[in-house]
Specification:
The complex is a heterodimer of chains A (273) and B (365).
Chain A lengths: L1 H27 L41 E3 L9 H5 L5 E7 L5 E2 L5 E2 L1 E9 L8 H5 L5 E3 L14 E3 L5 H28 L14 H4 L2 H11 L10 H28 L1 H9 L1
Antiparallel strand pairs in A: 1-6, 2-5, 3-4, 5-7
Helix pairs in contact in A: 4-7
Chain B lengths: L1 H28 L15 H11 L10 H4 L2 H11 L5 E3 L2 E2 L6 H22 L3 H32 L4 H7 L4 H4 L27 H4 L2 H16 L11 H4 L9 H25 L16 H4 L7 H26 L7 H30 L1
Antiparallel strand pairs in B: 1-2
Classes of the chains: A mainly alpha (273), B mainly alpha (365).
Chain lengths: 273, 365
């Protein structure tokens, strides 16, 4: 019998406590939780207020350079291809066109020598690791605070950053082609005269050591590219791609023919040794 | 006829806003906003939901017992709505002034169980059947304390007529019957007459303080009667999906929903009339300050109607709000706990209260 009354007493007191708690919450519903940045001291303290953030209308503060959408400041980009190489998921697609002469300087004074015919970052593939931003030598590739970029089509996630028109691309390619031809001719002449004179080969002079390892590595990549992205790209793209093929083929072929020209080079090093 | 039209429309409008209020209240309890997008502060959310609901296909399961399945929502709703017939909304406005008002009300509301059983059985679904069986077991169990509490009030009031019960709890008793007089706490020996003071002092819970406990028991039982949490095991969304109405859709489902909210309102009206003074004012006359008279017009006049409707509806809606508050506070009870509460705690307490009320009645005369 004692237990009987005790149960009634426990039930009444616990029910009353429960109602007290919920009524407190109803009262606190007048307030809205303040938007705290994660650095705030009281970030983890529980606030007695409405927790909801009405998302598109209100946003919680995020760091300026969090792991969100990537952005490339193409004016500052030297198209060094480091980001594309370091990317673990290969979401950055770059098509470089070497410039005949220096294009200009980036905001930090680095000379730009390569045009970016294509600089696409596919945010649908991106794993937001941030490696590309750390390797970027001119800090033009950054992660922004924009995290809401959902789209109806995957294609919309493939963001182009290059700002060259097709005409410009074509022009630059032609320029380069002509330059290469001239150079070849010059090389051939030189070879006739002095077979050893290979030092003058890359017009970009000082930058040669940095670009040297890249060019052979990137070449097969570019050569194989037209097959894979060719299916999803638009007609226009395909056209340019086809053009690339025709443009690049001769570019590679002269190389092959030029190989004998390069051959002396290891001999060069051999000589050094 | 007026009462029919009034209550039907009132019920529909009330349901729309009660669903909204419930969603808002639950949201506030859980530190959320609730509906915010449709209309100002989400006010039109239920209207939009309702428009969607009546456009939905009326699905009748292939293997269901159609003769039981189809009319069940109508029976459930009619059983609940018929209860409104005897409610005295104001001093001169009610559907029926039947002398056996309360008795009729309890009887007709019990038909609800038949509708629920029809829905559960006719659905030919295990969840629906479980829900229906639980509902029947629960409603039958809780009708005992509920009925006994009504008996307590009847013993104090000596009438089954709801309008008379309402008249007794205010300053206008003499308008209904000669010679009625109220004493503080109903004890005549105290010699403090409260007939002309009115206000909350003449409410049934003050005419006989025992009825304060009675009111609590009535409220708990009425929660079970309307299948509301913490006694919502017939619906039990998390285990039975939706209980007895799991197979319903579209308009039939909305009828069941309407009946549930109607039931909440009906038991709240009944509680307000039986225990909280019906359409009488909350404020008592204090000497020259005739607050009770000022806040309740003379019966029969327009002011009387308006004040009466105001007081009764606000009391009922307040109780509905408390029902919602309780729902979003307490967890659902297990079936055995439910039966335990009814048979081991509420029923003995009710029987005791009936006995004590009889004794109290002796003090009143």
């Amino acid at each position: 019998m004692k237990g009987y009354w005790r149960k009634i007493q426990i039930a009444t007191s616990t029910l009353r406590d429960g109602l007290k708690i919920t009524s407190k919450h109803i009262m606190n519903a007048r307030f809205q939780r303040t938007n705290l940045v994660p650095e705030a001291d009281n970030y983890f303290e529980k606030e007695n207020a409405i927790f909801t953030v009405q998302y598109p209308k209100e946003k919680l503060p995020v760091p300026d350079h969090g792991r969100y959408k990537l952005h490339n400041e193409i004016e500052d980009c030297i198209v060094c291809d480091k980001c594309a190489k370091v990317c673990p998921v290969d979401c950055i697609e770059i098509e470089p066109i070497r410039s005949v002469n220096e294009i200009g300087k980036t905001s930090d004074g680095t000379p730009k020598r390569i045009h970016a015919a294509k600089f696409n970052i596919d945010m649908a593939k991106c794993c937001f690791c941030g490696l590309c931003t750390t390797v970027c030598p001119t800090e033009c590739l950054t992660m922004t605070d924009d995290y809401d970029f959902s789209a109806y089509d995957f294609e919309e996630h493939n963001m182009p950053f290059a700002n060259m028109t097709p005409l410009e691309i074509l022009e630059k390619k032609k320029e380069l082609e002509e330059f290469n031809k001239q150079k070849e001719a010059a090389n051939a002449k030189k070879k006739e005269v002095v077979p050893k004179a290979t030092g003058a080969r890359p017009n970009v002079g000082g930058a040669k050591p940095t670009f040297k390892p890249r060019v052979p590595g990137a070449k097969p990549k570019i050569a194989s590219k037209p097959q894979t992205p060719g299916k999803d790209s638009s007609d226009e793209k395909e056209k340019t791609e086809n053009k690339q093929k025709s443009v690049f083929k001769p570019r590679i072929q002269p190389k092959k023919t030029a190989k004998p020209v390069l051959k002396p080079k290891p001999k060069d090093s051999g000589d050094k040794e | 006829m007026y009462a029919f039209l009034f209550f039907l429309n009132f019920l529909l409008i009330y349901t729309v806003f009660a669903v909204y209020a419930e969603r808002k209240l639950s949201a506030f309890i859980q530190d959320r906003y609730g509906p915010m997008e449709t209309g100002y502060y989400g006010m039109l959310q239920t209207v939009a939901d309702l428009l969607k609901l009546i456009q939905k296909e009326d699905i009748v399961p292939f293997k269901s017992d159609k003769t039981l399945f189809k009319p069940a929502p109508i029976i459930i709703f009619v059983a609940v709505f018929a209860g409104f017939a005897v409610l005295p909304l104001t001093s001169g406005f009610n559907g029926s002034q039947a002398q056996i008002g309360v008795f009729y009300l309890l009887a007709i509301v019990s038909l609800d169980v038949v509708g629920i059983l029809m829905a559960g059985w006719g659905s030919n679904s295990k969840y629906a059947l479980f829900g229906a069986m639980r509902s029947v077991a629960q409603i039958i169990s809780y009708e005992i304390p509920l009925g006994l509490m009504v008996v307590c009030v009847i013993m104090i009031s000596q009438t089954l007529n709801l309008q008379e019960i309402a008249f007794q709890q205010g300053i206008w008793w003499y308008n209904f019957a000669e010679g009625g007089e109220n004493y503080l706490f109903g004890v005549k020996a105290l010699g403090i007459e409260t007939t002309n003071i009115g206000g909350f002092l003449t409410w049934n819970i003050f005419r006989s303080p025992l009825l304060l406990i009675g009111f609590v028991i009535f409220f708990i039982s009425s929660l079970a009667e309307s299948n509301r949490a913490p006694f919502d095991i017939p619906e039990a969304e998390s285990e039975l999906v939706g209980g007895f109405h799991v197979e319903y859709s579209g308009f039939r489902w909305s009828m069941i929903m309407l009946a549930e909210y109607g039931m909440m309102l009906l038991v709240s009206f009944l509680a307000a009339i039986l225990f909280l003074g019906g359409w009488n004012s909350l404020l008592p006359n204090i000497g020259a300050l005739k607050l009770s008279e000022w806040t309740s017009g003379v019966p029969g006049t327009i002011a009387g109607h308006l004040w009466g409707a105001f007081w009764l509806i606000s009391k009922a809606l307040l109780l509905v709000l408390v029902q919602m508050w309780v729902r979003w506070t307490f967890p659902r009870m297990r079936l055995d706990q439910l039966m335990n509460l009814s048979w081991k705690y509420l029923t003995p307490a009710s029987i005791l209260l009936v006995l004590l009320s009889a004794v109290w009645r002796l003090l009143m005369i």
